[in-house]
Specification:
The protein is mainly α and 122 residues long. It has one domain. Helices cover 73% and strands 0% of the residues.
Length: 122
């Protein structure tokens, strides 16, 4: 849980992993249409990778399985990064609204922010 939170904070602050745009796409990735779907895919596919790595010896087929998993993981992580950056902008709006002492505006912005933030860390 702490690692996930640290990753999300780092991503929201602008740390962007590099994804190779020129690689050959020979596996179809699962889509991550929204943050909720990206989080499910990220968790599911990381678990699948961990299960493969837990085996006593790595076979060529298992290495290929991990390779295939990375396509969906990259798509999910890109969506999470994009949403985390948007979330950071929303949080700044909450911060500024709290300084303005406008309860209605603050409530609306904070509610919107929390709806997204809770998808990252319940």
């Amino acid at each position: 849980m702490k690692r996930r939170t640290a990753l999300i904070v780092a991503l929201a602050m602008g740390a962007m992993p590099v994804f190779a745009d020129d690689k050959v796409d020979h596996y179809a990735a699962e889509t991550s249409a929204d943050l909720a779907e990206a989080m499910v895919n990220f968790s599911t596919y990381n678990t699948r990778m961990a299960d493969i790595l837990a085996q006593p010896a790595m076979t060529q087929d298992q290495m290929e399985d991990i390779h295939q998993l990375t396509y969906t993981l990259e798509v999910a992580l890109e969506k999470i990064i994009t949403e985390a950056q948007d979330l950071a902008e929303r949080l700044e709006e909450v911060h500024l609204a709290s300084e303005d002492s406008d309860a209605d505006k603050l409530t609306a912005l904070a509610t919107s922010y929390l709806a997204i933030a809770r998808q990252l860390v319940p």
